Amino acid sequence: MSEDVNGDAKETKIQKLLHRLLNDKQRGCSEILSDSLRLLEEVEKESRERTVEFARRLANAHSGMEGFVKVMEEVARRGVKAVRREVERANEETAKALSELTEGKVIVTISRSGIVERALRLGRPAKVYILISRPGEEGRLTVERLKEFIDVELVEDAEMGAFVKKSGLVVCGADAISKLGFVNKVGTLPLMLTAKYFGVKRFVASPLYKLVSSINAVHPFEFVESKLAELLTEKGFTEWEGL
Fold it and tell me: Which of the two residues, 27 and 128, has the higher pLDDT score?
């Protein structure tokens, strides 16, 4: 009887977590991916077939995040443990590479990226302005996550020019990268163009597991050409042409 109760409780927990991940529209790709891999590793202990099923459902739910979809396909092909280990290492090293550029800087960022958040916590910037990032307003969550650690301020998307002008660095994450550029939340393209206009350095931080052969940005995501931002990966500065 006790085993049945424990089994039911575990299944309920799994279903709740799966439901939350399937419907998560506010967090960044790397955060959703990390939690998805933790769930799939737990499921794989019981059933490889069910793990593949869950991976496909998650990929379908986040089809706009092509890097996420690619990793789910790898899970279905290779299993969870090795993929999760590679993803976590890449996330950590990419965040570290970005953090080394942020110390003492005034920074503007957009939307929500787990890798960017981690880098900003490590890097001790002087000030971070976070665009609210409509639709979805993910910037609000980024502020909540960072306000205890660094000086952050939420600003309207339409104010980006005023704050980029007095910043020293513009950074963002990506949901997918290719030789031609990257995909991120809508608003990233005007942010990068504004920063270019004011001569402010621009970086996109993305692990190489998000590399795809072709990109198809679907709203609320948009494509940004490689010429508008330098790329940081787990290898540090990475040439777009070499991808």
Answer: 128
Q: Is the pLDDT of residue 2 over 80?
A: no
Q: How far apart are CA 204 and CA 207, in angstroms?
A: 10
Rounded to an integer, the average pLDDT of 199-221 is 93
List phi, psi (to 5°) of 155.
Answer: -130, 155
Model confidence, pTM = 0.88
- pLDDT confidence band for 176 (50 / 70 / 90): very high
Express each pLDDT in 49-71 by its tens digit: 999 999 999 999 998 888 899 99
Secondary structure class of 186 (helix, strand, coil): coil
H or E element in which residue 90 lies: helix 80-99
Beta-ladder partners of 183: 176, 223
pLDDT of amino acid 27: 86
What is the mean predicted confidence (pLDDT) over 217-222?
91
Q: 2-90 adopts what CATH topology?
A: Four Helix Bundle (Hemerythrin (Met), subunit A) (1.20.120)
Closest CA to 136 of 205, 87, 64, 66: 64
Q: DSSP letter string over 21-71?
A: HHT--SS-HHHHHHHHHHHHHHHHTT-HHHHHHHHHHHHHHTTT-HHHHHH
Residue 205 forms beta bridges with which residues? 232
CB 139 within 8 A of CB 154: yes
Domain 94-242: CATH architecture, name and number where available = 3-Layer(aba) Sandwich (3.40)
Q: Where are the beta strands (DSSP E) in 158-242?
A: 169-172, 176-178, 181-185, 201-205, 221-225, 230-233, 236-238
Query: Where in the chain are the domains?
Result: 2-90, 94-242
